[in-house]
Amino acid sequence: MRHALACLFAITTTVSMLAAPTAEVLRVRDWRAKNEKQILAELFQLISLPNLAANRADILKNADLLTAMFEKRGFAVTRFETKGNPVVFARKTSPAAKGTITFYIHYDGQASDPKEWTRGAPFAPAAYKGDTRVDLQSISGPIDPDLRIYGRSTSDDKGPIIALLAAVDGLASANATLPWNINVVLDGEEEGGSPNFTPAMIANADRVRGDIAVVVDSPRHPSGLPTVYYGSRGGASAVIKVYGANGDLHSGNYGNFVTDPTMALAKLLASMKDDKGNVVIKNFYDDVVPLTAAERRAVDEIPNVDQQLLEEFGLMRQEHPESRIELQHNRPTLSILGLEAGNVYTGTRSAIPGSASARIEMRLVNGLSAAKQLDRLEAHVREQGFFVINQEPDAAMRRTYPLIARFTRNAGGYGVAKTSMEDPRTVTTANAIRALDQRLVQMPTIGGSLPFSTFSDTLAMPTIGLAVVNFDNNQHAANENLRVGHLWEGIEIFAALLTMQK
Ligand SMILES: [Zn+2]
Q: What 8-state DSSP symbol labels residue 454?
């Protein structure tokens, strides 16, 4: 109890020592209030461009528009060509700069089916208040912050680009002298795992590197509070295919006689996790680096949203009742993302399939490597009695082994990234955001994966993650949206970062 009180006192003291929004931020707020329609018009223009990474012609149109938008603000813009889509790099220097901030934001978006959208369309953005469509042109006074703009990448991740540009505009109109040079790195392949991003950053390290990297992606914490994060998860995945007979067989004639590969696969999958959600694959958690005392404290200070999430997802309980979601983000996962065997809803035949497959995904945390975790998974399959191969079985194998599984590792995916919450430069950055409304969620890591490690590890920069957008933004799904109030707050967050003292 004494410890808790001491902690509370420490937090209160820290908070009261922090300033309210700075004069520059308040001037940016005023500028925004006078230019709301213009800011949203630019967002609509950017959202109207389709941005699926696989469509290079579309992506280049985005790169062209972004180049024009940054050049208009006095940035020097270049493109780093890659084997895939270009990285757009914009730089603006300040005569008074004592250092450089490097922002990372991505401009590509996930695929979307317009038929699933009930508000606007992926590339025909629209504003709504609740269920009612709103014509922005008809608004004469301030725009309601509870309006939401619907469209692909409004939140993930084009909205933050517009917020950054508006902050630059607002600071220019206030004649603010920026203590930072600004580097902006715009990735065109994030949703596909950024396969060419790190090589492009290594090749251009001297231009990209700054004193601090701010990785801008992902939604705020579900509490709705301003959110920063200090790491992101890595990924590893594999497909396991289990074999039965060398073709589908009549279930009446051969049921009870031939191996049922779907049953064998189900037993194999069931052997991987216990009833409390713990993965029971040998050594699965061995190398996990536990949270530091500061990280644990940061989690304890985050509002607990477990019940809110269960309500939203229509669930009675979480898999691990004794561990809140932010702590689960610091444990590796093992999930089945897809199963395939025979037919369930279409073309139903009375046949036992010749094979059954599962796609397994593991999210990794600090201390874990993809190769090692996949080795552990493969060893587990072997321990369950399977002969493990990496190609289709031949006739001799089929006659030799009772159980055969093909194990295919999927290459690529992001590495694990973790930075210190106590680095002086990340502390300064977090404090600049906290000063805006005295509250800040600090997540030791987010659940998702990003090219965070390109900055924190490859470029060895102090790195912090910034979540600007509303958590209920439907990113990656239909009806992706951005709440206007979050866009306004995002502008102020960027203004605070661009004017923070070193
Ligand atoms: Zn994103």
A: I
Read off the pLDDT of residues 240-288 as tens digits, 9 standing for 90 and up. Answer: 999 999 999 999 999 999 999 999 999 999 999 999 899 999 999 999 9
Amino acid 51 reads N
Rounded to the nearest angstrom, the distance between the alpha carbon of 109 and the centre of ligand 1 is 8
Q: What's the gap in Å between 414 CA and the centre of ligand 1?
A: 13
Q: Which CATH architecture has domain 2-232+416-499?
A: 3-Layer(aba) Sandwich (3.40)
Q: Which residues surround ligand 1, an ion (CB under 5 A)?
A: 156-157, 217
CA of 108 to the centre of ligand 1 (A): 8
Q: What is the CA radius of gyration of the chain?
A: 25
Distances (CA, A) of 260 to 249, 263, 271, 397: 10, 5, 17, 17
pLDDT of 17 above 60: no
Please determine, looking at this structure, whether the domain spanning 234-288+331-410 carries the CATH number 3.30.70.360: yes
In degrees, to the nearest 5, what angle opens at C-alpha 475 toward C-alphas 470 and 481?
Answer: 55
Angle, alpha carbons 411-195-415 (nearest 5°): 65
What is the Å distance from ligand 1's center to 157 Cα? 5
- Cα–Cα distance for residue pair 103/490, rounded to 1 Å: 14
Give the burial string for 43-63 (b: 16+ CB within 10 Å, else e). bbebbebbbbbeeeebbeebb
Question: How remote is the CA of residue 48 from the centroid of ligand 1, in Å?
Answer: 17
> Which pLDDT belongs to residue 482?
97
CA of 124 to the centre of ligand 1 (A): 20
Angle at 475 between CA 499 and CA 215, to 5 degrees: 30
Between the CA of 438 and the centroid of ligand 1 the distance, in Å, is 26
State how far the Cα of 462 lies from the Cα of 333, in Å rounded to an integer. 27
Q: Which ranges in 302-393 belong to alpha helices (H)? A: 306-313, 325-328, 370-383
Quote the ligand 1 centre to 387 CA distance (angstroms).
39
Residue extent(s) of CATH 3.40.630.10 domains in the chain: 2-232+416-499
pLDDT at 20: 86
Closest by CA position to 231, among listed 218, 248, 245? 218
Domain(s) of CATH 3.30.70.360: residues in the chain: 234-288+331-410
CA of 222 to the centre of ligand 1 (A): 16
Calculate mean pLDDT across residues 488-493: 97
- Residue 252 tokens read as 């009446």
Per the prediction, the chain carries an average pLDDT of 93
The answer to whether residues 90 and 76 touch, using CB atoms and an 8 Å cutoff, is yes
C-alpha distances (whole Å) from 224 to each of 219, 303, 308, 426, 471 are 9, 10, 12, 21, 7
**313 CA → ligand 1 middle, Å:** 22
* Ligand 1 geometric centre to CA of 189 (Å): 10
Look at residue 227 and give its three-state secondary structure.
strand
DSSP annotation of 155 reads: I
